[in-house]
Amino acid sequence: ARGASIAVSSPHPLLLPRSAPAASPFRIFPSFLHRVGAWYEMARGGGGGGGDGKPNPAGFFSRHQNIFLYVPNLIGYARLAAVIYSFAIAFVDPLRCLAFYFLSFACDELDGRFARMLGQTSTLGAVLDMVTDRLATTGLLLILAAQHSQLVLPAILLIFLDIFSHWFQMYTSMLLGAASHKDTGSRSWLVSFYYSNRIFMGFCCVCCEVLYLSAYALAFPSMRAFRTPVPFELAEPFPHYLPDGLADALFSSAGVPYLSVLLFAAVPGFLVKQLCNWVQLRAAAISLVEYDLKRMK
């Protein structure tokens, strides 16, 4: 009859026409992910809903019960696999090793972004992120120690400082009720500024990784082929303060490798990162002592 309403079911999101491509690839990628999520929901419940025809309360790209399959956690698994593979080929294929380690490092930024964008933050993801950070740094320092025997003790000390400071900070944050070691009301202004200012934290972390990766790559003659026109006489004093093997890699009469310049450019950020680790360890230790003293009253 004329005027009678006709119920028309809305099409599934997967079947909707594609919109015009976004100007930025960072907008295209989430759109692609949501299309995959729509396919996932259709496969689960048929037409984007449950078996009763009602829409699913939680989709793949929102908070749901299977935390192991959260998108940021999947990125975390991929990151861990990439760094393990990079270490497996570290002594036979330096270019591929650097590529996969860089991929793992980039995923460290992506998992946090997707966790916030999709509302899929989780304790599992926070712990996975921190542990992968520690293991990646430890593995890279062990490789440097294997390449240059003079760096064994410095590498061990850096590993100790990194693990000590972050574990103390993590445990202190848990006692204070924070979600992760980055959510902290530390007594140190440097630690608070480090974790609250992502640009500063990113600069320090990137400098630290660049220094380690440059030192690793310089152990291979093929990676030292590209050199700067800097006269050797200007760099001649530096090798006297370095281990023999590393000094030969950094400087030679043929010129200074570009990787050497990159390594020394990263030194300030590296030193600030180690200072932050030390201050973080000290502040966390004081907080733990104060916590014990309060319990004794």
UniProtKB/TrEMBL annotation:
Gene Ontology molecular-function annotations: CDP-diacylglycerol-inositol 3-phosphatidyltransferase activity
Entry keyword set: Lipid metabolism, Membrane, Phospholipid metabolism, Transferase, Transmembrane, Transmembrane helix
InterPro entries documented for this protein: CDP-OH_P_trans (IPR000462), CDP-OH_PTrfase_TM_dom (IPR043130), CDP_ALCOHOL_P_TRANSF_CS (IPR048254)
Localization per record: Membrane
Keyword Transmembrane: yes
Gene Ontology cellular-component annotations: Golgi apparatus; membrane
Keyword Transmembrane: yes
PROSITE patterns in the cross-refs: CDP_ALCOHOL_P_TRANSF
Superkingdom, taxonomy of origin: Eukaryota
Topology class, membrane: Multi-pass membrane protein
Transmembrane region(s): 199-219, 249-272
One of the protein's GO biological processes: phosphatidylinositol biosynthetic process
Cross-referenced PANTHER family: CDP-DIACYLGLYCEROL--INOSITOL 3-PHOSPHATIDYLTRANSFERASE, PHOSPHATIDYLINOSITOL SYNTHASE
Family named by the database record: Belongs to the CDP-alcohol phosphatidyltransferase class-I family.
Name this protein carries in UniProt: CDP-diacylglycerol--inositol 3-phosphatidyltransferase
Organism name: Chlamydomonas euryale
